Amino acid sequence: MSDLYELLDVPRSASEDDLKRAYRRKAREHHPDAGGDADTFKAVTHAYQVLSDPQRRSRYDRFGDDGTSNGRASAGDPFGFGAGGFGGIDDVIDAFFGQSAGFRSGGAGRGRRQQPGRDVLVVVELTLEEVVTGVARDVEVDVPRACETCAGSGAADGSGPTGCTTCGGAGQVQRVVRTAFGQLATAAPCEACRGTGRTVGDPCTDCAGEGRRQTSRTLRVDIPAGLEDDDRIPVRGEGEAGRQGAPPGDLYVQIRVAEHEVFERDGRTLAAEVTVSVSQAALGTTLTVPTVDGEDVEVPVPAGTQPGDVLTVRRAGVPMRGGGRRGDMALVVRVEVPTGLDGHQRALLTELAEARGEELDARGRGPLSRLRDAFQR
Fold first, then answer.
1. Residue 126 falls within a domain, yes or no?
2. Are the beta carbons of 150 and 211 closer than 8 angstroms?
3. Domain of 351?
4. Is 237 in the same domain as 221?
5. pLDDT in tens, 94-151
6. Which residues contact 216 (CB under 8 A, 6 or more apart)?
7. What is the pTM (predicted TM-score) of this model?
8. Nearest Cα to 262, choosing from 199, 332, 328?
9. Is residue 113 part of a domain?
């Protein structure tokens, strides 16, 4: 008897979530309809059933596996898929992957579900101003939509499709191939119904029995404020129509935010750079600064402001997603050093430096400048 933990490729300390992820991976790999080995699939399924039950796992850790499923097994159901457990291997797969996973062990009595249409993705670029305020955009969509002639049924008389006689409604055909190791059963999508399990006797001439036609149209999409790059807005039911009346997929509008010439965004904060002169930074001043909304605000610059200091304007940033409380605007101070001084201006700065005890050479250059000159010789 193989070790159940080794069958699932998990450590003995594996959590419930670890077991579930491992079983999903192994089931997809070994399911017979996916080309795997039936015995291995049953073994990993049994391993999961034992280890996912705390009592049975504890008993297994202490005494080992007795090869049964807690007394529920019978001669015809050695892995305990009968009453009180799963209804069968298909139910195990459905429990983890849903019926749309594409695995099905066959049988006309359990026909395939209709395959929904595919989801569609379109990209919309917004300006930073549109992100702050929110906007409504027209989106061009070119996808298959339900045929108006047959109302999406695919049948000329509107009766709709019926069960495929080739595969018995299963959507797939079982084939037995003889190999050197014996007979190997495989399953492939039914060519007659393209894997849907349904066919149309008298197909609609406008859509050739598909129940859908390529259609271009424009949708008006409301884009809320506060979105970021790669955020997606779902528009339910506006994707591709399914074949022969199957439900449609969804449309997803993916956001791209264009770079702004002034502001950089950091979450809900908008950052920009402001420049002040040496005298403004030293003595203090008030700046008039435009916001992303296009309005001007008065921003005080305290005396003694240093390069790199941040001045904050409350509630002038980006709102919460959907339009809530706004973030702030952060203004990073850059101090501009004057150049091209005339004689009078140089004399004033020299007098200021002497009054503050700052050392200058005869040309008005400080010790750091002289040191730099020495290295350049």
1. yes
2. yes
3. 343-376
4. yes
5. 444 444 344 444 443 344 556 788 999 999 999 999 999 999 999 999 999 999 888 8
6. 140, 141, 142
7. 0.58
8. 332
9. no
